[in-house]
Amino acid sequence: MSNHWHLLLWPERDGDLARFMQKLTITHVRRWGEYRCRVGYGSVYQGRYKSFPTEDDAHFTTVARYVERNPLRAAMVARAEQWRWSSLGQKATEEAPLIPLTPWPTPRRKDWVSWINQPQTAASHLVY
């Protein structure tokens, strides 16, 4: 995405999420500023990251679908798997993933890719 990102993370221990996000955002801000020759010109982020726990498999599936559909919904690609920076885009290519991905805690639907590419409506949030 051009102005934000979504991460679906599963920290192993208490405090891991905060430490990871601090390292990620500090590294991103430094690289962003150096690349654009904008070091010292103000903040990059408007506020602290937001985190929401996923409580069950159905909620996880809904969140994963939302995250993997985001570039499609923003009209940045014709199909969700074409966004190379997403987990879906990495799985769709023959190349090695840009970042290592861990297995999901729940199995994907057999029609996952076609389901991701369908419009997301209130009724399509249901997992079946």
Spell out the blueprint of helices and strands.
Elements: H1 16-35, H2 57-73, H3 87-92, H4 112-116
Describe the model:
With 128 residues, the chain is mainly α. The protein has 4 helices and no strands. The protein has helices spanning 16-35, 57-73, 87-92, 112-116. It is globular and about 50 Å long. The two termini are 29 Å apart. The mean pLDDT is 84.
β-sheet strand percentage:
under 5%
Please count the beta strands (DSSP E, at least 2 residues each). Answer: 0
Q: Count of DSSP helices?
A: 4
Radius of gyration: 16 Å
Element order: H for helix, E for strand = HHHH
User: Which residues sit in consecutive blocks of at least 5 with pLDDT less than 50?
Assistant: none
Concise structural overview:
This protein is mostly helical and 128 residues long. 38% of the residues lie in helices and 0% in strands.
Keywords:
about 130 residues, mainly alpha, 4 helices
